[in-house]
Amino acid sequence: MSTRFLSDEQLERLRSFPDIGREELNKYFTLTSREHGFLNAPGRGPDARLGLAVQLCTLPWLGFVPDELLQVPQAAVQRLATQMAVFPGVLEQYDRSTRKRPQTRSDHLKLVMKYLTWKNATPGSIQWKELEQFLLDRAMEHDTPSLLFQQAVEHLQAAQVVRPGAVTLMELVTAARTAAGKLTSQKVAHLLTRLMRADLDRLLVEDAEIGMSR
């Protein structure tokens, strides 16, 4: 069973920032006083504060933080910058500095995850096993891979678990579909007598008169 059920274009969209509407802008990019306190830690410059703020607001919005931070909608950057009284352009400075020091960006995301109490789903972790079980349960109900993928995304966000990479999630969906097929076969095996199998096979025999099976 192929793991690639999404196109390259769809995968690229899943890795990037989408457009944002007014409702999402207000819901996810409005800072509370507590969040201001988190961002304004001593020794943290305006670029680091704005970079952290973008990640802080993006994680609950998308369920992950895209690598290309500068692709965040400008309306979101402007809204955060206004609330924090910083120049929006310092986000570019943050992007440049964290590209030179990737560990800083990684550390900042960990700070955001800890503050928001989000977890990573790594192979073997509780979160990973729960995701696998969730996908298996849904795959027993239907077999549409794109729908399973979307349900997994929604499940992860509700559980406050960072979404794995799109390709990884596709592989998990495919594994769940395969497992569901095997489990279904096991559950109906006792019904598939020799006579029943013969009757089912006859349903697929092409009728020469009509050029298809009846």
Poorly predicted residue ranges: none
Mean pLDDT: 93
Secondary-structure element pattern, one letter each: HHHHHHHEHHEHHEE
Rg, alpha carbons: 24 Å
How many H/I helical runs?
A: 11
Gap from first CA to last CA: 28 Å
The structure class reads mainly alpha
Strand percentage: under 5%
Helix content: 55-70%
Mind summarizing the main beta sheet?
A: 2 strands, parallel
Query: Globular, elongated, flat, extended or rod-shaped: what is the shape?
Result: elongated
How many strand units? Answer: 4
Give the number of domains.
2
| Major sheet: arrangement of strands | 1-2
Task: Describe this structure as you would to a colleague.
With 214 residues, the protein is mainly α. It has two domains: 110 residues, no CATH class; 82 residues, no CATH class. The chain has eleven helices and four strands. It has a two-stranded parallel ribbon. Strands 3-4 form a two-stranded antiparallel sheet. Helix 4 packs across helix 6, helix 6 packs across helix 7 and helix 9 crosses helix 10. The model has no long low-confidence stretch (mean pLDDT 93).
